[in-house]
Amino acid sequence: MLFSHDTEVTLRAACALVNSDRADGEQMGDQPALDAYLNSWGWTGRRDHDEAELESVHKLRRRLGRIWAAADDEVRAVGQINALLADTKAAPWLTRHPEMPEWHLHLASIHDPLAQRMGAEMAMSLADLVRSGELRRLKICAAPDCDAVLVDLSRNRSRMFCDAGNCGNRQHVAAYRERRSKETGEAVDR
């Protein structure tokens, strides 16, 4: 594990949120889809179950996407992360739950709006990347036909493809076919 468990989980949740409208169209277009996402990532606390809440999560998703896009420019990314921390009024406190008995940070009250809590925790996880000198772990999928994001938690930072669109397998198959066609002189069937 490169980072604390809660940091890694929150980074993965942020990645999944950003990708929820990138790979296969809108996947979080209604409250049941938002609930499924929240439940799959273990988000606790207040849920309003209204259109305003859904739109605020969509706004957070766009904002996080801009942070991923700026990851190659540390100063710009840090400015965006700091703005998100400030806008969410992040106030760290230690807690633990029966389902997660290890101590971890929460950065907003369980009574704060959902997008505020999510934004605060995601911003703090991104801040952990910056503090560790690991911002380059935020990547855009290297497949030419994909704009999904990924967080590369591999030891050697070698991950290039997202999990959203089976991009790694598609690229490896295409490369294999290209090599094979050069070896045999056959046309490549794509």
TrEMBL record:
Superkingdom of this protein's organism: Bacteria
Gene3D superfamilies: Jann2411-like domain
Zinc finger CGNR domain boundaries: 137-180
Family annotation (SUPFAM superfamilies): Jann2411-like
A matching Pfam family: ABATE
InterPro entries assigned to the protein according to its UniProt record, in alphabetical order: ABATE, ABATE_dom_sf, Znf_CGNR
Protein name stated in the entry: CGNR zinc finger domain-containing protein
